[in-house]
């Protein structure tokens, strides 16, 4: 569970009234997410999705923001707002919020086609407002040399994990040797891969000489072994 982050709004002498407004709640939530994402408060944008009814208490109070999920996230979510007096819970209310955080992220400097290696010269590291896909963000210090794009990444787009995949050992629509193994004989022909694959993975290959689509195991970047029983 994420830690509770206590925001002291205003401590008054015992017996004085304490009013908690929507502005107080907004500030508490903003500071909470600043702590969670370890960014300045100015880098957190919070929208309260419903109005907060002003409440008055007879003694000094503090607000606690309590998450409803175990992993930090941006976008639409709910949090508990707890009101405490002398560390004792007085009441709590579940509210809906929309959160955006300004973070350093890798951004495509130019359009990156599908199946291209991630060259650092194609990326800029800059601060952007992140409103969705926080868990998909790529660490700006990560080694991306073994990855390729699995789709077109438009210029100016934030690079996300779901746009990347390990570079395959053999690409789809690549000519390869196809070794067909049966109980009685082994023969070799040519084929075209119909799927990306890595060493040891099963992929489909089309053999023009037989007119059939077969399933085999990638033995090397230019060899697929098909075992027929």
Describe the 3D structure.
This protein is mainly β and 229 residues long. The chain has 3 domains: 5-101; 102-166, Antifreeze-like/N-acetylneuraminic acid synthase C-terminal domain (Type Iii Antifreeze Protein Isoform Hplc 12, Alpha-Beta Complex), CATH 3.90.1210.10; 175-227, SH3 type barrels (Roll), CATH 2.30.30. The chain contains 1 helix and 15 strands. The strands form 4 sheets. Strands 1, 3, 5, 6, 7 and 8 form a 6-stranded antiparallel sheet that branches. The chain has a 5-stranded mixed barrel with strand order 11-12-13-14-15. The protein has a two-stranded antiparallel sheet with strand order 2-4. Strand 14 and strand 15 form a beta hairpin.
Total domains, how many?
Answer: 3
Helix content: under 10%
Structural category is: mainly beta
Apparent shape: elongated
How many helices? 1
């Amino acid at each position: 569970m994420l830690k509770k982050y206590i925001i002291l709004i205003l401590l008054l002498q015992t017996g004085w009234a304490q009013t908690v407004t929507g502005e107080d709640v907004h500030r508490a939530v903003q500071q909470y997410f600043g702590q969670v994402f370890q960014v300045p408060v100015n880098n957190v944008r919070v929208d309260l999705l419903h109005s907060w009814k002003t409440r008055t208490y007879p003694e000094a109070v503090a607000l606690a923001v309590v998450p409803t999920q175990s992993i930090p996230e941006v976008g639409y979510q709910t949090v508990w707002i707890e009101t405490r007096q002398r560390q004792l819970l007085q009441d709590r209310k579940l509210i809906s919020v929309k959160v955006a955080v300004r973070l350093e992220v890798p951004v495509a400097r130019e359009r990156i086609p599908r199946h291209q290696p991630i060259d650092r010269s194609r990326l800029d590291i800059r601060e952007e407002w992140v409103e969705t896909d926080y868990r998909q963000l790529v660490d700006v210090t990560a080694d991306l040399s073994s990855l390729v794009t699995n789709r077109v990444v438009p210029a100016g787009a934030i690079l996300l994990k779901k746009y990347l995949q390990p570079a395959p050992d053999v690409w789809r629509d690549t000519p390869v040797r196809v070794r067909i193994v049966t109980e009685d004989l082994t023969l070799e022909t040519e084929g075209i891969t119909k799927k990306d694959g890595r060493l040891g993975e099963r992929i489909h290959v089309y053999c023009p000489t037989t007119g059939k689509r077969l399933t085999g195991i990638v033995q090397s970047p230019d060899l697929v072994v098909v075992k027929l029983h």
